[in-house]
Specification:
The protein has 4 helices and 6 strands. The chain has 133 residues and is an alpha+beta fold. It has a 5-stranded mixed beta barrel. A hairpin with a 5-residue loop joins β4 (101-108) and β5. The radius of gyration is 14 Å and the shape is globular.
Length: 133
C-alpha cells in the first residue's frame, strides 16, 4: 500500500469513528466475507496516529499506545510479513495487547485493508482470548 492509499484509508477510518464507530467506516457498513474461514496472523497491534506520524512501535511506545487505544483512537495490525490493516474492533477492547507480539484470528475485507479480530493471544501464551467486536 502506498502513502496515498494509506492516507485515504486513514481518512476513512477517522470519518468512520465520527459516523458511528468502527463497524461503520466512512458511513458504510463493513463487508467482511461470509462463510470464509478465519485468517490467522502474527504481528503487533499499534496505534495508527503515532505509527503514521513517527513510525512508533514496540515496548518504548506501550504507554502512549495503551492510552490512545483506551481513548478510542484507531489501531493498526502490523503483520510479520510487512502487511498493514486497520483493526475494526473497539480500540479499548484491544488496549491490553498494544505493542505486544500477538497472534490474531479474524476476518479481513477482500482488499485486506481492514481486519476484524475475533480472537487474540500473546506470543508467549498458549491460550486464545475471544475479543468483542
Amino acid at each position: 500500500m502506498n502513502r496515498a492509499q494509506i492516507a485515504i484509508v486513514w481518512a476513512g477510518a477517522l470519518g468512520g469513528l465520527a459516523c458511528g464507530g468502527p463497524s461503520n467506516i466512512g458511513g458504510r457498513a463493513l463487508a467482511f466475507p461470509e462463510g470464509r474461514s478465519s485468517t490467522e496472523m502474527s504481528g503487533q497491534i499499534v496505534d495508527a496516529r503515532c505509527y503514521f506520524n513517527t513510525g512508533a512501535t514496540g515496548g518504548d511506545h506501550q504507554y502512549c499506545a495503551f492510552t490512545s487505544a483506551r481513548a478510542g483512537l484507531p489501531l493498526l495490525f502490523l503483520s510479520d510479513d510487512g502487511g498493514l490493516a486497520f483493526v475494526t474492533n473497539s480500540p479499548a477492547t484491544l488496549a491490553p495487547f498494544v505493542t505486544a507480539r500477538v497472534s490474531v484470528r479474524g476476518a479481513r475485507t477482500p482488499n485486506g485493508q481492514l481486519l476484524r479480530v475475533d480472537a487474540i493471544r500473546v506470543a508467549s501464551a498458549d491460550d486464545w482470548r475471544v475479543v468483542a467486536p
